[in-house]
Structure formats: structure tokens, C-alpha cells
């Protein structure tokens, strides 16, 4: 048998490649820095090229115009961080708006309607999460089924656009918050930013938030480390369903109407915003701040096209497509380096 | 250590899987402050026993006592709460999270529900310092080597106040100095009273660090010893066991062919072929009609050696010649074109496609060799398949039956048939007889002998020494990922002789 050399090895703890320690922690911020730079470049080129683009209200209005997308994308961020996907959110929005409008028309008190539709959205999400966890169904398929169910239900209730005449809804819709001289915003923008803030705190500072990252990093390991994988998974879909319903409520406030074709394809916009904001589709990496930046980027594209005036708004889609592609490739490069 | 009472006592543990008794009344005990090695060849029941202890499997019979109290372990979390922590071979942590988080996730220090990152990082650094590690605990785990990740996993495990720490092949991907570091940590933990269950395929490591060992074979307890009471040779004997050879005169056949084989042309010559971390550089020559057996314990590098010869892994040094011409086996397709076939050890995951029929499985490799643009006519397929079903006595003899409905032995034959119809010059078979019954084993061995009579060279990889001895003209012995000895299978060579080499590594 060999004798054992007991000389202590002192510096074995340092990584073999000293460069790594400097480089690695930054790697996870690269996508978000890229998105931030992109946003800055787009904004300054807008200011340079168009009159009045520099007006603060242009930027502030981004939050108002994209409040629904932002809220939905926040929920989507949680789902994608676990490595899942939620395709049902657009349909849940339409169901929420239709249901809200129908119930209010039927004379339900608004303070009952509001919690009712939010709970319904959360329940739809929880149901999908349960199917995904207990029956090991792919999130793509489970939430696709949810999409059809929700959209179909909305269409069954009413195919027409239903106007909302409720006083509370109208009051909120018409309320303006003055941020500064000449800069006003709507309550829905505030709600959206609150959602971002709460999500950011949850992800960074709570066990639930860290479990979300752990599951996205390696679900099998998370299970072996004794983390509540099933509970967390169901929770993120519940959260996403809730956010979608909240988005639907914001939508109904903004347009004071409910329509079954509202929010069509919004789930894809939300996914795109997450990806552009650097949330890794395979899970485990990304920040809700990135998602916020992603939403602002898509919003800013739309604004620039509006300012340009002679471009079809379909160009928004084309540019978003190009950006998506670029960011997916960027993500791939970053994760490959990180290996 | 004295006569303490055991911290863990498992008695009469029984675990049955459909058709297999994986554990048959196994007793196992561990004392506080000892390193206890669990020994046994593949399929002996080691990992099943560990999984019953970590809550991955529930036992079908028997009793588990921790600290004298009977416990029922129904999941990984329950196991941890009961004081059983596990560090798996493939590190089960989340590399996207920081080092500190990996140690504390699920048990983060909190105030008013908010994680206290500063306190968590400090405690992580303290904990790692106890293991003589100085890491940047806020760096993502992925920025550290596998060895460090393993240490982090151990740090996590011991912070749960583990009474029993299971290290399942922790050293298989570590280099020598990293292993030394791990052992230092193990000795420290031992002194603090933790009972460590250690699994490793490296005998030297077992003898270096363990106090006691338990040997399992075929799901049964063979014996428990203090390490100093048992020599390495005795240990190998206990692990492998003496198989009752109720087989025909294959051995004579091997003897008879030996002279001829030695004169035959070499089919394959490897010079200094190796791959870092998988197998040390080796020389090996295989002649026409020769059966070369690869012997060694699991993890000794048998499969790794074979995979280089098929291009399944790329060698990073040395050279290889097939039929006298140097070749570079970049990938398995190149090897197949050179007439080399490889029947994999994992027939379930790498070989057999369960949902395809027997016919489709057999045709697969031939079709791949021809390219998908030239399909084999159905009539030709049927002819070939019928011929091999008869020749190999595949049962049931129904070419249209999905392969997953066949027994293990028959699946193995289908796999062999697949490679045989490509008419290879060299057939590499990795563990063809593992997990199949004695009758099927005999048939497959007979087939190998017939193929060699027909001039085919065969590289036969098997954990069963008796089998290797019976079939091979030449035996290459592996130990710790190194080819340590190559011997002609003459009358003087027997299982003891090979075990000696496996156990000591001595080349005499």
C-alpha cells in the first residue's frame, strides 16, 4: 500500500485559472448590459433624429403604453427562470377582460369583480402548474391547452367587444398622476412598476425566489438538495396566471371595454421581452430588471416607428424578430464561455 | 473507536424491482467516526442500498435504525432531516448559483423572511475554512473545478449536522492531489464523529482512507471486515466470487486456436493510445481470429479503452493502425468504415431501441453504413434477419416484435446481430453477458468462439473473470485506468493470477 503524504496543500481552493474569478461574475450581467446599451443607443438616436423625442413624457409614456405587457412579462420571467414557458397568458388576459366587462355589465360590484377575476387567473395558472408537475406534462403543451381553454371560454361568453360603464373603472381610467411639470402618467403604469419592484425583491431576497433559480439551474439537483420543487413550480405558474389576470384588468381599465380577441399573441411578446432582457430560456439565469429593459426596448421601437411616420407598424415585429435572434445568439455565446 | 453502538443499523434490507431482487436481506451497520467502504461489483446492490438510505427508493422489507431509533426514510428531505447526507458522484448542485447559495439554499439565514446575504456569505466562508478552502463564495459555482464543487457539496452536507455522510464515488473524476485534499477533509470529519460511507472503485483509495468495509455480491451481504484484516486479493475474490462454470469445452478451443492466432496478421495496432482522464496510454495489438479479453474492475478503464478503438471517444495521444495502415478514428462512422463494430455495454441506453422491432434493430447499423439514401429492400432485410434470428437463436423468433418485449439476453443477441451483419473485421463487445441468465450467457460465449474461428477478431470486455479466461487467447488486465499487464492465456493462467494483478498492479 502506498504511504500517504500529509503535506497540507494551502492554495487548492483558488480556481485553476485566476482569470476566471475576475471574469465570471460579470458574465451573467453581459446580456442585461447589452440590452441597456441598446436602449441607450436607440433613445439617443431617437432624440437626435426626431423633434420632441427628448421630451420626458415620451419616455414616461412607454410605461403607460406597455403596462399590460410589463405585468405579463414579470410573471413570465418567473416561469422562464424555472426553465418553463407559459403560453396561456394572452388568452387569460382576454378571458379576464371579457369576464370583467360582463360581470360589471351584470351589475356586480367592482370590488367583488376585481378580486374574483384575479383569483380566477391565479387558479388557471395553478391548474396548469399542477398538470405540469404531477403528470410531468411539458409546460409548452399544458399551457397551450390552457391557451385554447381560456380563449375558447372568452369567445363563448361574448364574441363582441363589451363596453365598461362602471364608475370605478372609468374613474381609474381617467385618473392622471402628475410626476412633474407637463409629465403625467396613469395608475396602470404605477401598478406595472410596482409589479416589477415586488418581483425583483422576491427573486433576490426570498427563499421562493432563490428556489426558482435553483430549479432553473438543475431541477434534479434541487430535488436532491431537499428543495420544494413541485410547490415552487406550481407557484410560478400560479403567479404567471395572476399576473396575466392583472394585465387583463389593466387592459380593461385602459380601454374601458372587454373583448375576447384582446391580448392575442401577447404571450409571445412577453417571451420576447424576457429573452431580449437576458433571461435565459433554459432557466436559472436572468433578472426581472432585464425583462423591464426588454419591454422598454420593444416599446421604444414602436415609438420610433410612430415618430418616423411613414413606416408600417409591422416593422416593429420585424425589428423585434431581428433583436430576438441577435440576443439568442448572444446568450448562447455567453453560456458557452461560462462553461 | 472502542465498542460504541452503531449510528446506523440496517437489518434484513430487501428491495425488489420487477423481475429482480436487488437486495436480499442485507445487513449493514456504521459506527460514529469511521470511514466505511461499501464494496461490490456492478449490480451487486451498492447503489440500491445507498438509495434506500437516501430515500430515493423505499425498502420492501427490513429495518433501518439511526442512533438506535427505527426510522422510515421516504424521500431525500426526510433523509437529510434524519441526519443522512449524500454527495453524489455527479455533483448535484446548481452551478448557476453562487458557492454560498449552494451551501445554504433551502436553509438560508433570514430575518423577517428576507435572506441575509451578508451573514450567509460569512457563514459559508467559515464553513469552507474548516475544510481548508478559501473560495470567493459569491462567485458562481460553475467558475470552480469539479473537485472544488465536490468540496462545496460536502460543505453543504456537513452543515446539515450529518451523522452519516455518504460519498458515492467522489473520487472518480478527481486527480491525485484533489483526492488527497478530499481525504484530508474526510479524516477531519471522521474525527468530529461523522460516520462516512465511502464508495470507490479504486482499491488503493479504499485501503488508504477506510476503517471498515462491507462486501456485497448479487444483492447479498458477503461479509464485513476491518480493513487491515483483509488483503486486496482476498477482497477482489470476495467481490467477484467464483462462478460455477457449467460450460462446454470452450477453453480447449481457445487453447487450440492460440498458435494460429499468433501467426495471423494484426488487424489493429494501438501504440501509446490514450485519453487524458479516461485511460493512460497503452499498446495493444489484436490479430485476425484472436479473442482479446479485457479484465479489470468496474471503473478500471475497460470501457474507456474500448471506446477509443471505436472512435466513440477521441484519443488525445498515440496512434492507431488498422490492417497495417494508420488511421485516425475521428468518430464511430470512420471506425465502422474500417470494419470495426462496437456493441455497447449499456444496451438499454446506447444500443437497443425498444420501440423498434427486432428486424428494424438488426438492420439499423447496416443501413447506417450504406447511408440513408440507399434503403435496403424489404425482401433482403427479411432474408438477413431470418438468417440471424436462426443463427443466434433469438427467441421469440418473431422479427416484427418490439425489442423491449424481449429478455435481456435476447436483446443482447439482437444487438450482436446488428453488428454482425455489417461483417466487421474487429468486433468490440462490452459486457455482453451482464444481467442475462446463464443459458443465454453460454450461447453468447459460444457465438464469440465461433466468430473467432471464422477469422473475426474480437475484443471481449467483461467483468467476469471466468468468462474472460474461457474465451480469450490473450488477456489485457486493467487497473486504475491503466493497462498493467498483457498475458497469453496459457494453462498456468487462472482467475487467481489475474486477481493478483488487479489487486496489486504488479507486472511480474
TrEMBL record, chain A:
Name of the molecule in the record: Simple sugar transport system permease protein
GO cellular component, one term: plasma membrane
Transmembrane region(s): 29-48, 68-99, 111-134, 140-157, 178-205, 234-253, 314-334
PANTHER family per the UniProt record, alphabetical: ABC TRANSPORTER PERMEASE PROTEIN YPHD-RELATED-RELATED (PTHR32196), INNER MEMBRANE ABC TRANSPORTER PERMEASE PROTEIN YJFF (PTHR32196:SF63)
Cross-referenced Pfam families: BPD_transp_2
Keywords: Cell membrane, Membrane, Sugar transport, Transmembrane, Transmembrane helix, Transport
Single GO term (MF): transmembrane transporter activity
Native species: Actinoplanes campanulatus
Protein location: Cell membrane
Membrane topology of this protein: Multi-pass membrane protein
Species classification: Bacteria, Bacillati, Actinomycetota, Actinomycetes, Micromonosporales
From TrEMBL, chain B:
Sorted UniProt keywords: ATP-binding, Cell membrane, Membrane, Nucleotide-binding, Repeat, Sugar transport, Translocase, Transport
Family annotation (SUPFAM superfamilies): P-loop containing nucleoside triphosphate hydrolases
A cellular-component GO term for this protein: plasma membrane
Membrane topology: Peripheral membrane protein
Domain ABC transporter residues, every copy: 8-243, 262-505
Primary localization: membrane
GO MF annotation: an example: ATP binding
Keyword Repeat applies: yes
Protein's cellular compartments: Cell membrane
InterPro entries, alphabetized: AAA+_ATPase, ABC_carbohydrate_import_ATPase, ABC_transporter-like_ATP-bd, ABC_transporter-like_CS, P-loop_NTPase
Superkingdom of the source species: Bacteria
Pfam families membership: ABC_tran
PROSITE patterns from the UniProt entry: ABC_TRANSPORTER_1 (PS00211), ABC_TRANSPORTER_2 (PS50893)
Name the record gives this protein: Simple sugar transport system ATP-binding protein
Organism: Actinoplanes campanulatus
Source species taxonomy: Bacteria, Bacillati, Actinomycetota, Actinomycetes, Micromonosporales
